[in-house]
Amino acid sequence: MPEVTVTEHILLHQKRSPHATGQFTGLLYDLILSGKSISRRINAAGLLDILGGTGEVNVQGENVQKMDQIANRQLIYRMERCGALCAMASEEEADFIPVPDDFPQGDYILIFDPLDGSSNIDVNINVGTIFSILRRKPGKKGPVTLDEVLQPGSRQVAAGYILYGPSTMLVFTTGQGVHGFTLDPGVGEFLLSHPDMTIPEQGRIYSVNEGNSLYWDDAVRECVDYFKGCENSLGKPYSSRYVGSLVADFHRTLLYGGIYMYPRDSRKPGGKLRLMCEAAPMAFLAEQAGGRASNGFQRIMDVVPDKLHARTQLFIGSPRDVEAVERIHAKYGK
Ligand code: AHG
Ligand code: MN
Ligand code: MN
Asked: Above 60 in pLDDT, residue 18?
């Protein structure tokens, strides 16, 4: 089979897209370039002095790893110069970042989690970069305001992740299916390896941090019991897998099916995961692959963020498995 590079693939799909502009193609190109740079640093992390924490705590109240900072700086530096953006928002930054006046301005807003699962980096376990691309409302000019950034997932024009694993993979959607590319480190190109990815209708794996079970509510407890028991639609207990990096856990769910859950609990009543830079982009991917993503009561894609770092509980994966969770939540109510 002839090798298709990600650039070729984007250009081909852009031709078919109604809002095809060179600006958007350039944005993806620079994002991919940033991902390649981050991948290189991660591959050599054990050899350079870039493991461990910086000693700082970020806006989320979490310890900042050196690699979090490197990935964050890399993305901000490259993307504010790309000419396609008017603003960015990063998990690591308290406020959104308008593109400075002296750089070329564009119509898009980029939201990202520079390094997801960063607590895993010191032990050489998969981490990733998650991105979500929004478009500025037509006709809007001048400085970007926060309410322009706070858009629901259904307004995303593209979303995806770069998984830094045994091989580096880029998985993304522009609303025309989900496509996966594997980085060929020899030539430095992402090559199409997983065209038109689809989530199995039902899986046999559930993924959740069960160490939090003491703090769960009854609905969540019943959901997990459903997957561990024999009364589910599989008729036998599901297997359990949990990496602790959303990108890795989601990637497995996308390929094998099943469900990934990060429920709220009494210590995190709003959930842990960030709506805009984690849940919404994964929800766009899941739906484009034939799966579902829910907060237990509502489609994640429909949730309008009330603040930049809004959090949510997340149930994502095979449609039948997510439906089961929604049925259980409907019994208990909010
Ligand atoms: P981040 O490293 O970007 O802060 O994200 C961590 C997230 C997500 O990747 C993962 O699924 C989840 O937190 C793991 O949380 P627990 O350690 O609480 O299970
Ligand atoms: Mn994350
Ligand atoms: Mn992160």
From this structure: no
Asked if residue 134 lies in contact with residue 63, where contact means CB atoms within 8 angstroms, the answer is: no
User: What's the DSSP call for residue 275?
Assistant: I
CA distance 285 to 40: 25
Maximal C-alpha separation, the chain = 61
**Pocket residues for ligand 1 (CB within 6 Å)?**
62, 91, 113, 116-119, 209, 244-246, 249, 272
The three-state secondary structure class of 16 is helix
Ligand nearest to the CA of 60: 1
Residue range 40-60, pLDDT digits in tens: 999 887 777 778 888 889 888
Atom index in ligand 1 nearest the CA of residue 91 equals: 3
Nearest to 175 by CA among 5, 6, 18, 11: 18
What's the rounded Cα separation, in Å, for the pair 114 and 118?
9
Instruction: Give, using CA atoms, the residue closest to atom 2 of ligand 1.
Output: 117
